Fold this sequence. Notes:
mainly beta; Hedgehog/Intein_dom; Hedgehog/Intein (Hint) domain-containing protein; single chain; globular; 3 helices; disordered C terminus; 39% strand; Endonuclease - Pi-scei, Chain A, domain 1; 2 domains
Amino acid sequence: xxxxxxxxxxxxxxxxxxxxxxxxxxxxxxxxxxxxxxxxxxxxxxxxxxxxxxxxxxxxxxxxxxxxxxxxxxxxxxxxxxxxxxxxxxxxxxxxxxxxxxxxxxxxxxxxxxxxxxxxxxxxxxxxxxxxxxxxxxxxxxxxxxxxxxxxxxxxxxxxxxxxxxxxxxxxxxxxxxxxxxxxxxxxxxxxxxxxxxxxxxxxxxxxxxxxxxxxxxxxxxxxxxxxxxxxxxxxxxxxxxxxxxxxxxxxxxxxxxxxxxxxxxxxxxxxxxxxxxxxxxxxxxxxxxxxxxxxxxxxxxxxxxxxxx
Length: 310
């Protein structure tokens, strides 16, 4: 698991750990019944990259000044200045998605000493983590406190596949020809491999520093039969079909996250500067063409669906 991971910024809120030197967050109830995000401002657009600053979480069992110490674990958001960790609280919460029914989870909320507050991924790939990755998150409501007695900045966490997406300038095949992804609109009709023309139900975008988990993957022209370079997010799942797929999986085709295809030659990481990711969602997961390559618009995975059967 990485020490840098994706998170969602919830805002600068009331400080919930007001008494140092202990393991509790005394004012955790201040956030109960609050809702973050909504139809016109989905949380999906507030994704950030959280990474350690000047440490490797060596004091991850203590919060700021816990137990009379002054360990000052620090972290950075999107490569910015250091922020001092204060507390971590688990809340019973409700997630509402852009295109899926709401679910209840136990959400991990972490805060710095200035009240900057974040929804962070799980330590393990459990059902709560599957829920975070099920679809684009529209809003989060904190329903109650599950545990406000955590003692500090937790260990390495899941990367969190917030969204699989294309970058600005990618040509998407549509019913009216090739269109740059940033020019697509809700209601556009997009050819899909399995279900013909499908209506685009939601589009979103976010701009981030091209570093850490937000470093895009460059698929050079010709790598997958594409005429132009294709730049996608690390978790963007590409459809691949060659003799190696059959050898390793027994199937003619398989999906693979772009980051797992990096070979240092025609598929490479491209860090540096800013990158804008564009999210495309339909009524269901679809295979669409971007720069001539087939990839998934959205795919929750079997585990995600199974985790909500009851």
